[in-house]
Amino acid sequence: MAGNIEPVSARREAGRGVAVALLVWAMLGGAMVATWAAMRRWWFPPLASSQGADIDRLFGIIFAVISVVFILVQATLGLALWRFGSRGESHRASHWHEHRGLEIGWTTITAVTLIALTVLGGSLWLRVHSAPPADARTVEVVAEQFGWRFHYPGPDGVLAAVDLTADRRGSPLGIRSDAPGAADDIVSRELVVEVNRPVRLLIRSKDVIHSFYVPNMRFKQDAVPGRVVEIWFTPVQAGTFPIACAELCGVGHYVMASTLKVVTPEEYQSWLASFARGAL
To answer: Which pLDDT value is given to residue 198?
Structure first.
């Protein structure tokens, strides 16, 4: 009787190992197909800034490295289950205390990969956060619960100082009418810029931490109370693009949105002139 029990148990162990191996490979295949489908339909929105191409390229490199490691690990796990799953719990796996060649190999490969990614990421960060070009237009971005305001200098090119603690009727950013440059300044609820013209943003927050996010520009920057964060980008595609807050900032976070309009220089001048005529 005992002689019949062992073969049945061994077959069950073998079947269990094969089943788990097939499950692991099926999940791996499903993840690869889902990723492929997502890349075709729900990946990045259309790119509209000059800096975005480098950001997309670095993201692709990091994603490829992570994908290769993930696939190798999961495929090897499935292979081990398939090959050794039938040995049962009584069989102890062979092991060795150390293997200098393997340890040097995987440590070197991992270190070189991480150092290369760090260098690529650091150089891109320095380019994105470099000084803006001299011809960049300056716009002050003010975040508050739950909306955005965009403060433009007028024809004199002087951006009047704002006082976010003194918000008042007719001057939503607390701009004093007698402040230098205030007479022709513009405050808008939408961000309008020129195509192929660098834009320098001065990002501030009036209350809590927000995050200024424009997916098409591959642009996201926190707005922190008490700080002014300077960053710039160059839009290269005309059109209208969504602006969102990417930081949970309160009960109305979901309505904190605006639009970025990238227009021709002629359309931009016409938009500025509409403020001069008191159209808004």
So the answer is: 95
Q: pLDDT of 111-135, one tens digit each? A: 999 999 999 999 999 998 899 999 9
Between CA 26 and CA 23 the distance in angstroms is 5
Residue 64 has a pLDDT of: 94
Q: Tell me phi and psi for residue 42, to 5 degrees.
A: -125, 25
Is residue 137 within 8 Å of residue 199, measured between CB atoms? yes
- DSSP of the chain, one letter per residue? -HHHHHHHHHHHHHHHHHHHHHHHHHHHHHHHHHHHHHHHHSSPPPP-BTTHHHHHHHHHHHHHHHHHHHHHHHHHHHHHHHHHGGG-TTSPPP--S--HHHHHHHHHHHHHHHHHHHHHHHHHHHHHTSPPPTTPEEEEEEEETTEEEEEE--TT-------TTS-BTTBTT---TTSTTGGG-EEESSEEEETTS-EEEEEEESSS-EEEEEGGGTEEEEE-BT--EEEEE-B-S-EEEEEEE-S--STTGGG-EEEEEEE-HHHHHHHHHHHHTT--
Q: Which residue has the tokens 């939503």?
A: 172
Report strand pairing: 191-194 vs 147-152. Answer: unpaired
Task: Note whether 154 and 185 are within 8 A (CB).
Answer: yes
Residue 210's DSSP bridge partners are: 223
CB 202 within 8 A of CB 228: yes
The count of other CB atoms within 10 Å of the CB of residue 274 is: 12
What's the CA dihedral at 125, 131, 137, 140 to 10 degrees? 70
- Predicted confidence at residue 279, as pLDDT, reads 41
Separation between Cα atoms, residue 179 and residue 2, nearest integer Å? 98
